[in-house]
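Entry:
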Amino acid sequence: ENYEKCLDEKGLCDGLSVVSEACEIIKNNDVLSDCEIFFDRYDSFSRDEFRLIEAMLCKCDNMAVAITLSNENNSKSSLSPFATTLKTCADLERIARSVGVEIKREKSAQYYYNKPALTHVNTNIFCLENHPAQNHDGVRVAVVQDMYDEVEYVCARIKRLVRENHLKYSD
């Protein structure tokens, strides 16, 4: 009670209160009728955001959620960078089923790099099985501890190329 009074005195409100209020407004009104809702590039939602999404899903005409997932090969590992996104996708589908909304999955066009070796790395990184590349085409995969090690590695590699191959830093 003191918390809410303090917020009121300062003209503030609790984020959870705002989400709860929004859910109630959506449930008790037709504010989202004839609306299509789009979420783009989220990898996760909080519990409160899921509650809000559920309320919106019950009232809007259509909802599209664009999330980044990888192919089947590298999404099975618990180390996959897509593990959070896969869980979010499963949670969204569970919510949609619980409110009787049809789920349509659409895959966007595959992104291919101008070098087949980069496409191979993107497709097979974090795979549980080893899929050797046909050729490496100048692509090198290096294991580093953190982003600082990565920067040091790249800088050292550039310096070596400039020194040994007589390249310019601008190359």
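The CA atoms of residues 163 and 169 lie 10 Å apart.
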